[in-house]
Design a protein that fits this description.
Strand content of chain A: 35-45%
Bound molecules: protoporphyrin IX containing FE
InterPro entries (chain A): Cyt_c_bgen_Ccs1/CcsB/ResB, ResB-like_domain
Organism (chain A): Desulfurivibrio alkaliphilus
Subcellular location (chain A): Membrane
Keywords (chain A): Cytochrome c-type biogenesis, Membrane, Transmembrane, Transmembrane helix
CATH architecture of the largest domain in chain A: 2-Layer Sandwich
Structural class of chain B: mainly alpha
Strand content of chain B: under 5%
Structural class of chain A: alpha+beta
Radius of gyration of chain A: 38 Å
Order of helices and strands of chain B: HHHHHHHH
Distance between the termini of chain B: 33 Å
Number of domains of chain A: 4
Membrane topology (chain A): Multi-pass membrane protein
Oligomer: heterodimer
Helix content of chain A: 25-40%
Chain lengths: ~450, ~290
């Protein structure tokens, strides 16, 4: 039993399995980019024929391969592999990090990759103090221990850089946990609602079911901004959050592409819009300053009783998206014949009539489309990303460097100095630094 | 001077640089003047390209685009890609003090730049950024990814160099190579360059390509990962290089095997960068 357990453990502790899993994940991911995902069943039958389409369906390659049981199983195996492999090796690495490097023997020091030997005309204790000072001045703070009639000094930097790979591996697992959290506890939804309206529900993207918001969201205005060359610069919804539990006053804010709104764990993204066949018209008597605002649809007339004015939109010219750029307005007031005139969206036009001048403003009404995401896992994912950056930094930028200085009594009453060291990567640059360090020691008049 | 002219000139400067380095490779590194000229021409090309990019930025600003970054379409990204290769190569030349590397790096800068300038498919016009592209995360994402791509391209060049020299060494039996191959750095050094460049590229690609990309996607669409072909291919490329680092570090692979992985990784990189947009675009609605 334990033997079997051991075998399973060993399998999952092997980097070989990891390489196979990575290869399999990469290869199957390619499949999902070649066979389009998330299409209707008819699409696959049309593109690949009914037999191949059946096969794809049975193999769970369509419509969502990346969520299929076998792809998820690969990811699970990959995670287990990562956990077991790390647990298996961590103790050794940890021992390396906390290793008592003063426990070593002169014989082992002799085998270090970098070595320099020198003579000092002082007995080991005094020479040890001298070397300690010199090393400290060069940035290597040492610990010391008496050893076989001599003194051993040791200093190291970046021992924990050996943990870098583990930080990276843990970060991958954390990202998986975040993704899982998001898919279990979160949802994606959307709403489309016209300017001037208030919503209290969202609609789940998968099921289409309404989800209560818990507060009210009102859309004041939807605006499309343009560059001087008429390309779209910006989509913006000006909204009001009405949430007495959180804010005493309704909160006015806006949602733009790349600038989502966050409230109560929900994030609202500007994602689409719809021009409506309704128009906001503002008419003002320029003499008295009296004003009337109305929402009209084409060919419905509005009467402003106090002024005896009647107006309406008779015709519009729209682009392919349904955005109206020109209106034809019909207007009548006492004392003259009705007139019609043309005007552009969001423009002011003044009409002269016998009794007064009237200024006109017209604006098309839009509905704004918002994507809504509830993803309580996203912070876990970001935490994982941050850890991964940290791990990459530690693993790639920081080197574990060690320096020993061993002073043993020499025949002439002085001492012999053995300076040695090594690093776990960037060997060429540590070589250079080691040489410089030896050079620096030799400059002391007592050392040669 | 307009940016378009400067960037067009850059193409010829890269060409001159590539030719000079190939000449140095063929005629040997003895001639110091030629070496100096090659380095100066490369620096000049980099300067031209830098000015071209900055000027283009300025032109966009004058046209009233406001928020703009000159990395927003295929044309501009190729120009920047070539820029990264040239800069990366100069750094390598400085570190390794060896100009034979240039013949395996600068031709890529030239090809990328010429591809940008002369491929009829690209629209070179200045166009303002769509709302979704106006994001600092996107800019960081693009810059870091392209530095990563350039590192992978250089690793590929070095791998080709390694494989050519290794073949010569195997055939001639001479561990330093014969003729032209003898002037190339020792195999061990090339191996080290390949490994370090991949390392460097991997870090930037992870941080810039995957992490910043995910953050941008989340701020623009509300989903940090949606398995669209471009994302998926980035992941595949990432897997290839992660596997390369692991076989190197834990299984002690080096030399030819690593060189072949660098070649494979670069094919995956090119597909991620270019192939996805043009071969899979018919299938997927990737914007
Ligand atoms: C695709 C995801 C992975 C990434 C990005 C990754 C990344 C890394 C990195 C950057 C290193 C450091 C390499 C170096 O210092 O040269 C490393 C080391 C290592 N990785 Fe991974 N890794 C991944 C998956 C795995 C898996 C699934 C295993 C499980 C078996 C694994 C096992 C190891 C081992 C054993 C080391 C050496 C650690 C040491 O002894 O210090 N890796 N990994």
């Amino acid at each position: 039993m334990t033997k079997e357990r051991n075998q399973v453990w060993r399998l999952f502790a092997s980097v070989k399995l990891a390489l196979w899993l990575i290869t399999l994940l990469a290869a199957s991911s390619i499949l999902g980019t070649i066979i389009p995902q998330h299409k209707a069943p008819e699409y696959y039958i049309q593109e690949y024929g009914s037999e191949l389409a059946r096969l794809f369906q049975v193999m769970d390659i369509v419509p969502n391969m990346y969520g299929s049981w076998w792809f998820v199983a690969l990811l699970v195996l990959f995670s287990i592999n990562l956990i077991v492999c790390s647990l298996d090796r961590l103790p050794n690495t940890w021992r390396m990090v906390v290793l008592d490097n003063l426990e070593t023997t002169p014989e082992r020091l002799q085998k270090m990759p970098l070595k320099a030997e020198m003579q000092i005309n002082e007995e080991p204790a005094a020479a040890g103090e001298r070397v300690r000072r010199l090393l400290a001045a060069a940035g290597w703070k040492t610990a010391a221990r008496d050893k076989e009639g001599g003194v051993l000094l040791f200093s190291q930097k970046g021992a924990w850089s050996r943990l870098g790979a583990y930080i990276i591996h843990i970060s991958i697992l954390i990202i998986f946990i975040g993704a899982l959290t998001g898919s279990v506890f979160g949802y994606k939804a959307s709403i489309m609602f016209p300017e001037g309206e208030t919503v209290e529900h969202l609609f789940d993207r998968k099921t289409g079911q309404p989800i209560p918001l818990g507060f009210r969201l009102h859309c004041e205005n939807f605006t499309i901004g343009y560059y001087p060359n008429n390309m779209v610069r910006d989509y913006r919804s000006d909204v009001i959050i009405i949430d007495p539990e959180m804010f005493a006053e309704p909160l006015r804010t806006s949602i733009r592409v790349n600038h989502p709104l966050k409230h109560r764990g929900l994030t609202f993204y500007q994602s689409s819009y719809q021009p409506l066949n309704e128009f906001l018209i503002k008419v003002q008597n320029t003499k008295t300053g009296l004003e009337r605002t109305a929402m009209v649809s084409p060919r419905h007339q509005v009467t402003w009783e106090e002024e005896g004015v009647v107006f309406g939109v008779t015709d519009t010219m729209a682009d392919r998206m349904g955005r109206v750029h020109e209106f034809r307005i019909w207007f009548d007031s006492p004392g003259a014949d009705p007139s019609t005139f043309g005007m552009k969206d969001k423009q002011n036009v003044t009409v002269q009539r016998p009794e007064a001048d009237y200024s006109f403003y017209v604006q098309q009404r839009y509905a704004t489309g918002l994507q809504v995401a509830k993803d309580p896992g996203v912070w876990i994912v970001y935490l994982g990303c941050g850890l991964m950056i940290l791990g990459l930094y530690v693993a790639f930028m920081i080197t574990h460097r060690r320096v020993w200085a061993y002073l043993s009594p020499a025949d002439n009453g002085g001492s012999k100095l053995l300076l040695c060291g090594g690093s776990n990567r960037n060997k060429a640059s540590f070589d250079q630094r080691f040489k410089e360090l030896a050079q620096r020691l030799r400059q002391d008049q007592a050392i040669n | 001077m307009e940016s378009a002219q400067l960037l067009n000139l850059t193409t010829f400067a890269y060409l001159a640089s590539a030719i000079l380095y190939v000449a140095i490779l063929i005629f040997g590194t003895k001639n110091k003047t030629m070496g100096l000229i090659a380095t100066l021409v490369t620096m000049g090309a980099l300067l031209l390209s830098t000015m071209g990019i900055l000027l283009r930025w300025n032109e966009a600003f004058k046209l009233g685009f406001g928020y703009y970054a000159p990395f927003s379409n295929m044309y501009e990204s190729l120009v920047f890609f070539a820029w990264c290769i040239a800069l990366g190569y100069l750094v390598l030349e400085y570190i390794y003090k060896n100009q034979t590397l240039g013949a395996f790096a600068m031709p890529f800068a030239f090809v990328a730049q010429a591809f940008a300038e002369y491929w009829p498919q690209w629209n070179q016009d200045l166009r303002p950024l769509l709302p979704a592209l106006q994001s600092n995360w996107l800019i960081a994402h693009v810059i870091a990814s392209f530095i990563g791509y350039a590192a992978f391209a250089i690793a590929f060049g070095m791998a080709v160099m390694y494989l050519a020299k290794a073949r010569n060494v195997d055939r001639s039996g001479n561990p330093d190579g014969t003729g032209l191959f003898a002037t190339l750095p020792p195999l061990k050094v090339i191996d080290d360059v390949i490994y370090k460049t991949i390392f460097f590229g991997f870090v930037l690609f992870t941080v810039g390509g995957l992490i910043f990309g995910a953050i941008w996607a989340n701020s623009a669409w509300g989903t940090y990962w949606s398995w669209d072909p471009k994302e998926t291919w980035s992941l595949i490329t990432w897997f290839v290089y992660a596997a390369t680092l692991h076989v190197r570090y834990t299984r002690g692979w080096s030399g030819k095997k690593i060189a072949w992985l660098a070649v494979l990784g670069f094919f995956s990189t090119v597909f991620t960068y270019y192939g996805v947009n043009f071969l899979l675009s018919g299938l997927h609605s990737y914007g």
